[in-house]
Amino acid sequence: MNNFEIVIFLMTILIVLSAFTDKIKIPYPIVLVIIGLIIGFVPFLPNLRLDPNIVFLIFLPPLLYDAAFKTSWLDFKKSIRPISTLAITLVFFTTVIVAVAAHYLIPGFSWPISFVLGAIVSPPDAVAATSIIKGLGLNKKVITIIEGESLVNDASALIAYRYALAATLSGSFILWKAGLQFILVCAGGVVAGLVVGYLLVFAHKKIKDNAIVETSLSLLTPYLAYLLAEQLHVSGILAVVTSGILIGWHSREIFSFQTRLQTTVIWDTLIFLLNGIVFILIGLQLPEIVTNLKSSTLFQLIGYGLIISIVTIVIRIVWVFAGAYHQRIFNRKKTGDDENDEAVNWKNVLIVAWTGTRGVVSLATALALPLTLNNGAEFPKRHSILLLAFTVILVTLVIQGLTLPLLIKLLKIKSEKPLLQKEENELNLLLAESSLHFINNDFKDDVDENMLERIKKQYEFNYNILANKKGDYRQRKESDSQLNSMNQFLKAQMEIVKFQRELLIKFQNEDRFSEEALAKAERELDIEELRLNSMMQKTETSVSVVNNTTSP
Predict the structure, then answer these.
(1) Three-state DSSP class for 372?
(2) Which of 371, 388, 415 is a domain's end point?
(3) CB–CB of 48/284 below 8 Å?
(4) What is the pTM of this model?
(5) How large is the C-alpha radius of gyration of the chain?
(6) What gap in Å lies between CA 54 and CA 518, rounded to an integer?
(7) CA–CA dist 369, 289 (Å, integer)
(8) Closest Cα partner for 366 from 158, 223, 173?
(9) Within 10 Å of residue 96's Cβ, how many Cβ atoms?
(10) How far is 174 from 161, CA to CA, in rounded Å?
(11) What confidence tens digit (pLDDT) does each residue in 239-282 have?
(12) How many domains, in total, are found in the chain?
């Protein structure tokens, strides 16, 4: 197959499988990886090698940007302490412990090679974690911590990987230089992301009524941030994440409703395809990895891989529980009450501890290992590292991914969906109530009183429904043939939609409602504005036709 046929083949497999994953109740990343494994061992089907450069340049930036864009900055900031602990400290701790285990358990693994393996398998994967926890109704704080960790930890792991690899290639390593470089690379990545983010916010504000240009610009943003950072030799991943969070925070101010509706559909489709293809490609890598290994060596390495997998899982569980216990003791000493007990509830802590699936970043860094050292000698244990990394990915992805929904059920963790629905109802009620106040007190004076009364009754009707009250209002179907009156009526409704948008921004800045509730209300306003805008265009066209027909 040529490249185009391969892409079509993978997309076909992805779309067909995704249609059935909801029915079998298995997270689709796991299904796709297993199917990739099966495809890889079928002789007449394509054997594809995952190019790490493609992963880091083509796949990773949009996947991370989309996740960061949908992350609430306020929620992220509130959970910055556990996120940074997991994304930085735990990554380095896992690297060290895995290196120690590999050095003393696996024959021939020197310290540099062991640290390379530790850095490869240390970061949980953002793509896998987000895909698996989606729709499980987890606590909002738990989701924020898991997704926030996954956004940041890739940068920590890649930096650790670079220094471990440099030590292997050159045979030397200076700790203080590595520590200083880590700080510079991380800070530089954040600064690069802020620069790109603010430039793009300014650009979107200047672009008016051009959804195609704005959508195209949004698709370019993750690549602009990543490439700028990489050119400056700082963290491209942190640049993408920073720009995504920044632009996401300002999105309600800078995007028109047409842009939001259009970009949502395009980005959802793009992320669906990229996610699916990545997981299929993960499964397709095993045949090439085992090609140059003897059967005895293969089974031995799989055994070592299982041990390393257990080490990574246990390290995370111990670390997360220890961190939660420390936070609980610290908060009690500081506040003297139990107000933080819910945040560190042991069931939620266990969910965070168990969500440590590895994925595409670990595999890409393993495949990126050079074939030779600086002196021309063959890179030691390269095929062994690849198989060990793949084993850890498969074990954590399949075992932890499949058992997470079961664990939630066994722990009898209540879904947050009813609470979210209640919050959405409260938000809609407050919007209706504030809109009525706006109509009664602050609306334009030049609007016809009959039209204003008609609008007021519509919102009173909506308010009564939301407040579960029995209103006396009965909807009337009026045949209004006067196009100008209709146009005025639609413009008045557009004014109310504009006011409600300003309220949403106010609520966002006050951190009054969750990001999920605000996003749903915003989408409903987008749809309403799209409907009103379409009706206004029709009435304006009709008025123009009538005027041209009646003019002498």
Answers:
(1) strand
(2) 415
(3) yes
(4) 0.76
(5) 27
(6) 35
(7) 13
(8) 158
(9) 17
(10) 14
(11) 999 999 999 999 888 888 778 888 888 998 898 888 888 888 88
(12) 2
